[in-house]
């Protein structure tokens, strides 16, 4: 055991250059290599990828990594390929490849070169892929962003539903499922759907002690936000709005008020969207005004504030979106504007949906309203929602919300607010 431990640390150093494991990474990896099914619940930035990347690199055969977004896959493949001196140990298999490229990937797998194969669930069901994967040595299957399996999650993907039967067809190997969504409902759903009731569960705290949570009534919201951002001039921040139209309008309003801001939503031309995102990452622009299309897989450590112009549809979404602030452990101010009328609008929208979707949607909205209207510690409320107990007096970050303390002192606004 100790020899194996020393060995794992050596491999960690060799491939990733890190001297120590983060959180429970080492136990997770040991158990996966020992053939166990594993379920990992760890907040964003916790280091989930390494839990399957390292064992994949040191195992015989190819690990299949199921991931929901082509963009995410590409990032990871590039990152993994940068780690190893052997060229191309990670590959993507999806609809973006042509025949020649697909054949190349198949050859690399057969030749034992590919240690990690990233696939989208909808690719995995293709007959020619399935037939091929059945014939090669698979080390294990990793299901990243596993909450996509659950309708209670914030990013449900119907294609994730059938994963279990597909994996069973490919190989009898250990499965590791990973997610940053930890509500007991989602957790239960994932384990049931994947047939992982006997899996070892590794859950880390979802507390983000450096984030400050505040909810304000949605009155003079434009002016309030302009003022807030002016007080944080030069710092990176995200403003979330529900509609594309609002995103465009508000980005313009910020610009008119001398704030270096750009819009981001799925309706923008691909080139503009990518350019705006890159400008934010490269610090050419301070503020991104965005719909929820922005953020997944974006790793900017020094985002100093996340503002919700509109309240999100669930507390998970809220947690994920605010979680993009303060990743480096520094200041992260999470400010949300609440208007019960916005919730009514969302309810009306849900009324047009099929019954099951509507019921889930309404329950999620109830939790959002509860959070917005609570007078208890907001951190305690969020963590309770994730099935975690939090001491609102002594817990880490206990005074970091509007209900628990006076808000931090803000500098005087210097910007000209007359244009709002
Ligand atoms: P998650 O998928 O849980 O959101 P990632 O896998 O993207 O998190 O990892 C978040 C960051 O943590 C990455 O920059 C990664 O390089 C870093 N990281 C992971 N494991 C370690 C470690 N053992 N030591 C130092 N940094 C680590
Ligand atoms: Mg991840």
Automatic annotation (TrEMBL):
Which Gene Ontology BP terms does the record give? DNA recombination; DNA repair; DNA replication; SOS response
Keywords associated with the record: ATP-binding, DNA damage, DNA recombination, DNA repair, DNA-binding, Helicase, Hydrolase, Isomerase, Metal-binding, Nucleotide-binding, Zinc
Q: Name one GO molecular function term.
A: metal ion binding
Cofactor(s) needed = Mg(2+); Zn(2+)
Reactions mediated catalytically: Couples ATP hydrolysis with the unwinding of duplex DNA by translocating in the 3'-5' direction
Q: Which family does it belong to?
A: Belongs to the helicase family. RecQ subfamily.
Q: Per the UniProt entry, what species is this protein from, by scientific name?
A: Chryseobacterium shigense
Residue ranges of every copy of the Helicase ATP-binding domain listed in the record: 29-200
As recorded in UniProt, its EC number(s) are 5.6.2.4
Query: What is this protein called in UniProt?
Result: DNA helicase RecQ
- GO CC annotation, single: cytoplasm
Q: The Helicase C-terminal domain covers which part of the protein?
A: 220-366
């Amino acid at each position: 055991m100790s020899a194996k431990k020393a060995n794992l640390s050596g491999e960690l150093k060799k491939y990733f250059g890190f001297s120590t494991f983060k959180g429970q990474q080492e136990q997770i990896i040991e158990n996966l290599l020992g053939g166990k099914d594993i379920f990992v619940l760890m907040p964003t930035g916790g280091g989930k990828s390494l839990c399957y990347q390292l064992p994949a690199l040191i195992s015989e055969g190819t690990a299949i990594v199921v991931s929901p977004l082509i963009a995410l896959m590409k990032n990871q493949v590039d990152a993994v390929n940068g780690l190893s001196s052997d060229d191309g140990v990670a590959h993507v298999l999806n609809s973006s490849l042509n025949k020649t490229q697909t054949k190349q990937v198949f050859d690399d797998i057969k030749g034992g070169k590919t240690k990690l194969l990233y696939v989208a669930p909808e690719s995995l069901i293709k007959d020619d892929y399935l037939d091929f994967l059945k014939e090669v040595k698979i080390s294990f299957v990793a299901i990243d962003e596993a909450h996509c399996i659950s309708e209670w999650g914030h990013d449900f993907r119907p294609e994730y539903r059938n994963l279990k039967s597909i994996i069973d067809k490919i190989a009898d190997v250990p499965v590791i499922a990973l997610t940053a969504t930890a509500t007991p409902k989602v957790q239960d759903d994932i384990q049931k759907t994947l047939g992982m009731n006997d899996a070892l569960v590794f859950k880390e705290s979802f507390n983000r002690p450096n984030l400050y949570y505040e909810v304000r009534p949605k009155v003079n919201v434009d002016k309030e936000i302009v003022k807030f951002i002016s007080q944080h001039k030069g710092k990176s921040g995200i403003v979330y709005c529900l509609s594309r139209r609002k995103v465009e309008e508000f980005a313009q309003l910020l610009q008119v008020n001398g704030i270096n801001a750009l819009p981001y939503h799925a309706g923008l031309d691909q080139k503009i969207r990518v350019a705006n995102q890159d400008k934010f990452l490269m610090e050419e622009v301070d503020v991104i005004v965005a719909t929820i299309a922005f953020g997944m897989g974006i790793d900017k450590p020094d985002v100093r504030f996340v503002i919700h112009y509109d309240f999100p549809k669930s507390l998970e979404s809220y947690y994920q979106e605010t979680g993009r602030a303060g990743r480096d452990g520094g200041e992260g101010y999470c400010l949300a504007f609440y208007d019960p009328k916005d919730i009514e609008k969302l309810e009306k929208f849900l009324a047009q949906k099929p019954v099951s979707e509507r019921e889930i949607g309404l329950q999620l909205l109830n939790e959002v309203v509860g959070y917005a209207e609570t007078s208890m510690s907001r951190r305690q409320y969020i963590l309770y929602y994730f099935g975690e107990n939090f001491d609102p007096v002594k817990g880490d970050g206990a005074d970091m919300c509007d209900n628990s303390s006076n808000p931090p002192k803000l500098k005087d606004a210097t910007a000209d607010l007359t244009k709002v």
